[in-house]
Every structure is written in structure tokens, then in C-alpha cells.
Amino acid sequence: MNGHLLVIAQIAGRRCAFSALDVKSVIDLGAITPIPRAPAHITGITALRSQALTVIDCRLAIGFTGQTWPTDERAAVVADSGHSYALLVDGIEDITTAVGDPGQVPGGFGPEWSRVATGMIETMIGPALLIGLPALLAGPEAMRGEIEAAL
Amino acid sequence: MDDLLAEFIAETREMLEASSGEIVAWEADPADRARLDTIFRFVHTVKGNCGFFDFPRLAQLSHAAEDALSDCRGGRREPDHQLVTAVLAIIDRIAQMIDAIEAGDPFPEDSDEALIAAVNVSRETYASDGQEGVKEASSAPLHASATEQFALGQADPSEDPAATAPVRRADPAGSASSGQRTIRLPVELLDRVMSGVSDMVLARNDLAHRLRQAGNQPTIDGPFERLTTILTDVRDAITRMRMQRIETLFGVLPRLIRDLSAELGKQVMVDCDGGDVELDREMIETIRDPLTHIIRNAIDHGIEAPSARLAGGKREIGLLALAARQSGNTIAIVISDDGRGLDEDRIAEKAIATGLITAAERSAMSRDKILNLIFEPGFSTAEVVSNVSGRGVGLDVVRQNLEKVGGSIKVASAPGRGTQFTMQIPLTLSIIAGLTVEVSDQRFAIPQSYVEEIVQASAKALDLTQMGDTALITFRGNRVPCLMLADVLELQQSEAARRDPTLVMLRLASGDLFALAVDRIHNHGDLVVKPLAPAVMKCGIYAGSTLLDDGQPVLLLDIANIAAAHDLVSEARTRVLQPMDETAAVQELPQAMLFTDFTGRRSAVRLELVQRIETAPVSAIDHSGPRPRVVIDGLILPLIGLPEAQLTAPKNNGRVRLLRLSDGAGDLLYAVREVEDAVELSSPLRPVPEDPLAEAVTLINGAPVTLIDAHALFAMHGEVPVAASRPRCCLPDDEWAHTILAPLVTSAGYEVVAEDTADPATIAIVFDEVFEVAEALGRAPAGPVIRLRDHPDTAADASTIYRYDREALLAALAHAARTLPVSPLHAGARA
To answer: Which residues of chain A are within 8 Å of residue B202 when distances are taken between CB atoms?
Structure first.
């Protein structure tokens, strides 16, 4: 990962990093059409030019429910298996380069974070939690499903 | 044929490229089952394809490889290194031959015997079970025509080198013989252009909005209009580029079916229906192979030999019917044959034998489930492996390919009656007609194809009742289940909207009808449907998203799924094989719109008269004239049926429902308390001479209803069609009268006629001096005369009017018109 470009964002008050290769662009979120009966972490859909983006609230997707988080109304656009998503975060901070490879910390990151984090990564502006997209997009239900399957 | 050949080459290359990695991996680990399956499918497809072209060497090679691999799959042979090498050598040879075919070169000289011998070397040792039935060299196709041979020799000189790129054909529609030039393009490029054009449309809309705000600017508006027109054209063209009628796919089938049936000694008639259904070009490519596989299977296994058919009491010619239907967000392609049907027991036995299910599982499975086991990998029921449909590999590939694009396949079959495969393909990026509805301030789209009718009425009129948790309405005398969209979506809905819903009557593909209650209807138009993220699709409510003209995203409801989730779908019916004469003539009864007027009387008016049902605020009724009027769509229309007393506290939020009646020439509005429904006038009509406004009384659902006499209504209240009753007027025959006087007279409501058709009922406008001369000659006009003078001096004779004295002229015309006798001609026209 050394030298990789990272997009740094604040999620639920923590500094997180996305690989810049995953992030197609950062947009200002316009009107969001809510999707009734969709999972809670899916805020709705929004239009980016002629494209429809699924808006994922990262805070809820990680599992921090019951709390409202501020947002700077900007979102990172990512694509996963042919679908485009807009990731709603507290704020987009910066783009920087990674220093070294992602690693674990003793004691872990806590259950919610561990599910979505690839590991801690050192960057030019300090350490950040590297987020894995598939786990994030799957939402908190995914983990519950796994636990139920394991039981 | 060139086209098909090019297709074959492109496809084989694509598969070679895709499987090259698999081959290497298999070499490393010959026991890897998944890799084995992939390679097996490759050679199987090559074998199948070269059956249609005359490539006996290719067919032999692939058949040999397929047999060897099949033994491995069946556990009759261990994939050792020697076998892997031999198979790889065959695949390499296939690649060489494909190159040769494309370049138009002769095949490599080397004999294939050595390669075939190499894969078969240890075969006898393992082949122990009935493999003798395999016909080793049965691969030579029987119906290769001279043209194909020719095509082979010539192999596509017209194709450019781009054909070697792994891209799909961009325009298979261009027939081989036509001179239309075609090129191949990657689909991604088309996608990019298409989304670019969509962006342009949105940018244009934005610009249009800003221009409107800035006010009229002639120098900009002109070019902007042009831009709009061009953009619309381009958008249409791009859309057409992606969409293709399924016809192009059906077009090649009759030939294929003919060849196959001749080869198998069967007689098959093919019936294609729904060729005009449009499908994404890429989707057509995706279903091409699955469709071919199923057809081959149907002819090979489904349809019996002519003698067997006759013995079974059927026509000796088998019927293979293909039907494509767009049903909402999916295209359903149904392939049905009237052959022997699937044998449940044999399938079950086979499934147990191959270890797919256990005997215990089998007894718990429904017939349907067992039949659908044929899509499991490695399943086959054919006793004799033939060159045509092979070992059942087809169906698992079919399912795999369809599932890759989000489609599905299922089979239904009646023993001895036939088999029916139903492929469901999603409409990714298809354009469908849709209806936009609103509920709880949010908009949703419904595919138009489901919409049967839109009903606007109060809950009471529809007899909305709750039966347990289910709501029912009464629609044309039938109880129809009703879903509240707000409840389906778990949205909050205002009480007012709930009491006074708008119902969209939806007809499912199975024929079931149900009502969906929404707050209001917006509009309908073409929607470009885009797929949704998997997590959203999982809700089972939405089929896609679309952007409205203003760029707002809107969700497309998955009606079929919503209905299924609420158990509104009855058991699927086998409709396809029904005789076609279902549309037996039903005698059309006259229909009428049933309503309750403000006196509380239940009345009806013939449906043909009802133009529309309007809703207008009470405040829009203008009482200033002798009779009330309402402005609707910029037209002032007379209004009747209002109660004597003022509408003080109207029920419907200060709105009144109006039936807009039309006699073809003029419209009038009939205010009603409640619109009920359209009904058939099935009971006898009993005239009521004592009520001038009633045509008859009749019984509807056992209750008496007054049928309004439209003739009397329009005679009394209709805006009298102007043309029929205009008094006629003839003018002097000069330039001034034509250009200046005539428009004034016409706009005052008079018909200008030529002088020679004048009769006593025609008002004549003449210049005084002309009149004097005419009078002197005894040729004065028979009817009333208005005399004009050239000078405004008032001293002149009061019997003349100054020609620019507008008021006096109109007054004179009006006075003359009043004194006119009713002409017999006009009386006749009014009768």
C-alpha cells in the first residue's frame, strides 16, 4: 500500500481512509429520494447527472444507530460490482498518500469497526482506519446474519 | 450466412480467451471440478455450433474432447496428465482452425486422427457403462448447404481486423445480403455515449430553466430550439442503437429448427409471436445461446417422432411456439412444445442416481421442484447421447447464463401434452412506458403495461371494505382486492388521501386484477429504467429506478413482486397452448356512466358522451352569467346540474366533480355529487315521456337509474354549435368588403355568402348608391338590407350607416337578424 493515494473522511467522528482507486469522485449531494422499506443504512437514491446513485450512510452502515451525525453534504462516489454508490460521511477531509501497509492494533477496533476495517494505515497526515468497501456496503445486517448462521 | 459465421468465430474466440486461464489452471490441478466443467462447456458449445456450419473436422475434434471430459465428469476416468495434454492439444487445434476459417485459408494439413487417438487412448479401459451408444463420428451435419460451403471458403472478406477483438456484434440487424455497412463497437462505448446524451438532455433542461428565468431573448431562443430538436433526434437514435427487436433473434430460428428436425427425422412447425418486443441489444446476445439450447432440447427430446405422435393421437407435425412478452419490468420468453412432456419419475430417478437428491428428499418434493432439477449441473435424461442436445450440459449453462444477467428460467410440463420453458429476463436499461403516481408526497413509477384503468372515486362509491386485513373494492360488480400503496411502503398517509383515494387498476400477467390506492396520478411517459443496488432490490418492492425530466430519481415499483408478496397471484395458468380463438365475439352492450346528481337521484349518461371527468374547485364556478360557467383548459364551458342552493360546505375539499359531455361539436359540464362507475346497460330501457330530460329508466344492479336524454340536454344547454345557426349575410363585391367588412361580420357571428345564393333569409349589406340603382331596376335584395354610406356626415339619411360606424353596423345586423324568418333550410339542419 505504500505510496497509495487515499481519500480521508470522517465517519462517526473517526478518521477513515478509502483507497483512491475505489473512489471515482466526490460530489455535493443534492436531493435524495428516500427508499421506503429499504435497510436503514440506505438513505435513498440521488441523481448524479443521468446516473442514479444509491446513497449509503456510512455511520449507519457500520452500525452506529440511534444517533444523528453531522455531515458536510459531500459524498464519495464508489462503484461495486457494477453499481454506483454515494457514501455519506461526516465530512471529506483530504487526499493523501499511505505510508506502509495496513496493520492491526492490539485490542482490535471494536466489533463494528472490525467488520468494515481492513486495518490501520499510516498516512502522511496521521493514522487512519482503512475501510473495505464490500463489508461497508453490506450494512450491519450482514454481520447479524453471519452470527445467526453461526449459532 | 456470413453474419452467422462471423458470430460463430467471434463467440468461439471469446470463449477461447475466457477459458485460456481455466485451461492453465486445470493443467495445474486436473482434479479441479469447476475448471473441468468450464472446459467441458467450451468444447460442448463448439461442437454444437459447428453442427450448423459444415466443419466436420471441428465437430469431430470437439466431440472427442467432450466425450473424454464427460467421462471425467461422470467419474469413469481419472483426468491424468496425458488426458489434459491431449485435450489442450485439441483446444489449440480448434483455435488454429478458427483462425483459418476467419482468414479464409484452408485448414492446417495435419491430420486430427493423432489428436483424437490421444484423448481416446485409455478410454476402453474405463468405458464400462453403455458408452457404446455414443456415435463417434456422427458429427457431420446433414444440411450444410452450398452457400455455407461457399461462405466457408470465402469466410468474411468484408470483416475488418477489429473482428478479432473480443467484442460483440454491434449491429446484427443488417442482413448479410444488404449493402448496409456495419461496424462492431464495444458495448461500453455505446453506454458511454448513451449516458453522455442523457447528461446533455439534463443540461439542456437546466439551461432551458435559466433561459425562462432570464426572459425572452430572441437571439438565444432560436439556436436553443434547434439544439433541442437535434438533441431529441440524437437521443432517439442512441436509444434505438441499444434497443433491438427480438425479431432479429427469432429470425434465424426457423432455419435452425428446420435443419434440426430434418436431422432427427421429426416434423416441427414453429410459431413465433411477439417479435416486436424490444430488448437491450446486449440482452439479446445473452439469451441467444440459452434459447438455441432449449429449442434443440425441445426438438430432440420433447417432440416425438411422427409415428409416435400419430399413435398418441396428436398431429404428426409437432408445434414449437415461441412467444416474447414484455410484462412490466421483465421480458418473458416462453418456449413451448406439444411433445411428450417431462417424465417426473425418470428425472427423480436420475437425480437420485447422480446424487443430486436423496430418495427421502424426493418423496417430499413437488412435481414442479423435481422438473426443475433438470437445470442442475451434470444432469441429463437422454439415454442416447446425440450430436444435437448432448448430455444435459445445455440446461445448466442456460440457467447459469441467465442468472448472470439477473434472469431466471423455469419449466412446467404436462405428461403427454408438452413442455413449457419460461425465461424471465430483466429489462436492464430498457425503456418502458410508465405511469408516475404520488403517495405521501413521494413519487413512484408503475410500468404502464400493468395499468388497466384509473379510477377516481370516493371510498364509499367503491364500496371499500376491510375484510380482515385485506381491503376490497367493488369494481364493475366484482370484488377486487385493493392494496394501499402507503401501507405497502409503510409510509404515513393523510386521512383525507385515505378517504378519497385514486385507484390504479392493475392486471397481472396471470390475469389477476387488483387495485392499488395512491394519492394522485401524475403523468405517464417513457422511462429509462436503470438497475438498483442489490441491497435495495432485496426489499422486493422495486424493480429499478428512473430519472424524471427534472432529473429527480424515482423508484419503479415491482408490481409482480408486490402482488406476489400479498398473495394476489393465483396459480399460474398454462395459457400458451390454449387455442387462439379465445377472443370469441362478446356482444357489446351499450355502456353508461353511473352517477348521483345533486338532487340525490341516481342517473346515468351514455359513456360515449363522457369525454372526461373533471374536478374543479367550487370557487372556479362563475355565476355572473345567466347560467353558471366554468373555465376548463382555457375553454368557457356551460355548467348544469348544480343544486339550487349554493354549494356551501362541499364535501370534497371544496371541489366538485364534473362530467364533461361532448356531442362532438360542443362541450358542456354536468356537476354531479358522486361519480360511481361505468356500467353496461343490460336491462331494458323504459321511456319516461313525462320527464323531458330523461331518455329512459333502466335497472342497474337491481336499482332504478335514470338515463339522461343527451339530445334534450344538448338542445337545452349545449353551447349551440355556431356553424349550424349563423344568420347569413351577403356583402358588396369589392376589395373593401372582402378585406375589411367581411372579418367584422364573420366575427359578429354571421356567415358571409355569395350574392347569388342569397334568399329572403339573407341580410344584404350594400352601398347606398348601389342599392338605389338596384331598387330602381327592381332588383333589390329580397331580405333585409343594410345600406352603407361613404361619408360620416350625420345629416345624411338615417336609413344608411356610415361604413366605419361599427356599433351602428352591428346593431343593424342584430336588428335585421331578429326580423329574419326561420328559413326552412336551417330548420332542417337543426332537426
So the answer is: 49-50
